[in-house]
Amino acid sequence: MASVKQFQVTFDCAEPERVARFWCDVLGYVVPPPPQGFATWDDFDRTQPPERQGSAFACIDPTGVGPRLFFQRVPEGKVVKNRVHLDVRVGTGLVGEERLAVLEAECVRLEALGAVRGLLLRADGVNESCQNMQDIEGNEFCLD
């Protein structure tokens, strides 16, 4: 029998803290406390070698249910479509116009945070409607 494992989702990005704070706003996540002995993450970061400063950041689900999100700086920019993406489940259980209204409201909220609206995929008899989006560094995700 297989056991359930904890996991985190890791994002490659140019500005880890900026992208992490975007996803905190999207998901209601929080920044975890800094390591013991440090008042802030900035204090901790200043103790790192210059090449490591600002190279990583994380956020967590305050309820402990969702996975930890980890953001790491990489030198290359995003060049192709994500092979894995997040579905932000805002319309669960809703159908038709009610679902579209919830997707639209969340899309507008996220655009104000810097997200970019993509294609709206309308219900097709098998799948419900969903809204394609991109985060502030172009990583694709869906409002589902």
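Next protein, fold it too.
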Amino acid sequence: MSTEDEGFKTTEAYVEFGSREARGVSPTYERLSAAVADDDELIALLDGLPPAKRQPNLLFGVVRWLGGPVEDPAAFYDYTVANWPAIEAQLRVRATQTNEAGRCAVLLPVLAALPQPLALLEVGASAGLCLYPDRYAYRYGEHQVGSGEPVLECAADGLVPPARVPEVVWRAGLDLNPLDVTDPDDVSWLDALIWPEHAHRRARLRAAAAVAAADPPLLVRGDLVDDLPALAAQAPAGATLVVFHTSVLYQVPAPRREAFVRLVRGLPGHWVANEAPEVLPYEGLPEPPEEGLHNVLALDGTPLAWARGHGQAVTWFG
């Protein structure tokens, strides 16, 4: 979903979120999205915010973080209207930083195939939980890779899973507002962004946060264009630099997104992108395997696979 000023329609955004992202994944958010889309009062409140702050994920996460109800649309309406000043204040200062370690299961086949060892640099890193693909374990059907916790499950089609995890010698993240897994407030925000029914993702968050807290990554507060070259230059010689991002660029206005693509193409090493096809378009893509939102996994601008948003499935075509 685009969050650029031009042409952003709040009602359509909630309809699309419910029908494309939440359907079959979160009945609670599917139901809630439809209710908000149909409520003129809530839409009017949201339309008083900048487009990037009207996102369903952000609204629902803020209400959950403040202790409000999301299971019942009527209760959600009552709470949101009654507490709008507090909700609006949080919407203006927070962002959807869903730091889903499960996405590493989609990235792993690409990372494992690159020249080792790797220097990982994640753009839009949040708390950096996706910077540890070498520390997690993976299960692709009956095939297990690696050891440790959490174990990331991924339904893989058309893919021979890698035999081993990559070797990572340097890990760094760039974010406008990096989060700290040792800060209970930051972790509670990450928890609030997890969809209500997803207890397995909450357990995964706790396990991944423990990994990051034991060996914190280098997290830099900065812009994906202005500050990327300096951070990339810190990668150690002798390691393959990999700049990657997952479900991040939809929050970046189109001109800035284009500037980032030009920049990252000129850096040494490799670029791994995992973004929605309307955000980072490619020519000649095959049809996605099913309804629902799929990202396109790409290496150096070449699309390789369709991937579900939380890393739960990947369909290889490259």
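About the second fold: Residues 199-214 form the longest helix (16 residues).
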